[in-house]
Structures are given as C-alpha cells and as structure tokens.
Amino acid sequence: MTHGLAVGFGSLRCGPSVSSSSATIHRTLVAPPRRSLRICSSTFPPPPAPAIEGRDVSLSVTTRRGRVLPVLKGCSLLVPPGQLWMLLGPNGCGKSTLLKVLAGFQNPTAGTVYINRPCSYVFQNPDHQVVMPTVGSDVAFGLGKLKLPLDEVRLRVSKSLDAVGMLSYSQRPIQTLSGGQKQRVAIAGALAEASKVLLLDELTTFLDEHDQIGVINAVRDSVAADGEVAALWVTHRLEELKYADGAIYMEDGQIIIQGDVSTISKFIKKKQDGGSEMPFG
C-alpha cells in the first residue's frame, strides 16, 4: 500500500518469531567462618524484542555474463523500538540495498529478516512522495485503505502533522512547500498509518542545512514521543550521527560494527586518523 511513496507493508517476518525470557541471577557471598550469607535470586524483566532484526543477510546478483557478485555478505543487525538508528558507510558499500532488503523490496539470497509491522519506507527525493494537492489531503490519502471513520482520519492526520511540526500547514498547497517540508509530510503519512518501523533512505540528500535539521529533528522527536516506533536512517553525512541513539557502520557489503553513537564515532575517527579512505558524500 502506498502513501506517496511511503510504502506500508504487512508482515515481513521470514522466519520464526524471536522470543526472550527473563534471566535469573544467583550470587553467593562468602563471609567469615560460620557466617555464610546467600542472596536470594532476583528476576529482571527481559529486554524488548528488536523492532528490526537481520540475521546473516546476504544478497548476490548475477551479471549478464553469468558472473555472481556478492552485494551483501552475512549482515546481522538489531534495532530496538523507540530509537533512531543510522546506517552509514562509504558510497557503494550496500547501505541502501540492505534497507531495501529489510523493506521487502528485494529478497535476500540467504539469511532472515524480522521486522515489526506496519512498516513504511520513505525515499530520498521528496518530489516523488506526495500525490495530493494539499498537505492534509496527502497525509489522509494513505489512510483510505484502512476504511476508518472520518473523525478517526482527521484525528490521525492532525496528530501526525503535529508530530513533525507541520500541523499549521494542513491546508497549504503541496507545491508551495520546501523539500524538507515535503519530507516531513511523507513522514507524517507513515506515522498516520501507525507504522512501527520507519525505513528512511538518505532523506537529506537534496536538502539545504535548515531543512536537513528540520527533517532529522522531526524523525527523532516522533520516535522518542511514541516509544514504540523504530527508525533506521541511511545517511552519507557523518554530522548527522550525533542525532541518533545508535548506529551501524558498513563497508564492502558487510556490517563492520554497530553500537552506541560514541562507539561508532570513535571507530570512524580512528579509521580517519589512520589514513583509511572514507569516501562519504
């Protein structure tokens, strides 16, 4: 189902569901003779299941001459709910391809993908994502397939536009918006459909600095406010990393490292200081 080009997917689970159970920890403290003390077991709640998970995801393509070329090589990743993560790496390393595999646009050659539903994909060119004449009608367009009462549609449109800072633009003609504002409208459409996962492919590529910050703040604030929505943002801009909760770094079709922003930033800086070529941009 399509809102502009923000695509709402059904289940994309390709394997058994991921389950986790609470962990019980037992510790024994030994005191002086005749005075041993045993601490009773404590049960901790399990961590939330990841909103996005890939296990050993690989993808190969066959050329016209029959040569098999690996594009993705055993990629494994986890993105928790309620967080904005970034997927970055040099140009041509497979970032956008991995995002398309997670979205279901391409089937992996091997491996499995688990992703919460509904899931929406927002493309990098804002002019390819909006189809209706006004902001409000464009956000409402994607809700038609849900056959919701009119009051519910209005509520969802208002709530999602407010989440991305565009509520006052609801009657504004689409053609009067900047590129960043159009991107926010596309994101609002995904939020209106109650998407649990946002897959975002280089949204700031065609935007000026002001719109870049506006779009990334809209995504970050929406994810934080909801608490259940996860966003995976593909970017070639290292300066955007500071807005994320976590990050995944790729090279040559492989995930090299993933973790918190501080860890990834230090890793990239070490590579740069070591003279490694990092052809971002």
Automatic annotation (TrEMBL):
Gene Ontology CC entries for this record: chloroplast envelope; membrane
InterPro entries: AAA+_ATPase, ABC_transporter-like_ATP-bd, ABC_transporter-like_CS, ABC_transpr_CbiO/EcfA_su, Molybdenum_import_ModC, P-loop_NTPase
Taxonomic superkingdom: Eukaryota
Source organism of this protein record: Zea mays (Maize)
Domain ABC transporter: 52-277
KW Nucleotide-binding (keyword) present: yes
Keywords: ATP-binding, Nucleotide-binding, Transport
Gene Ontology MF terms in the entry: ATP binding; ATP hydrolysis activity
Keyword match Nucleotide-binding: yes
Identification of the protein by name: ABC transporter domain-containing protein
GO biological process: transmembrane transport
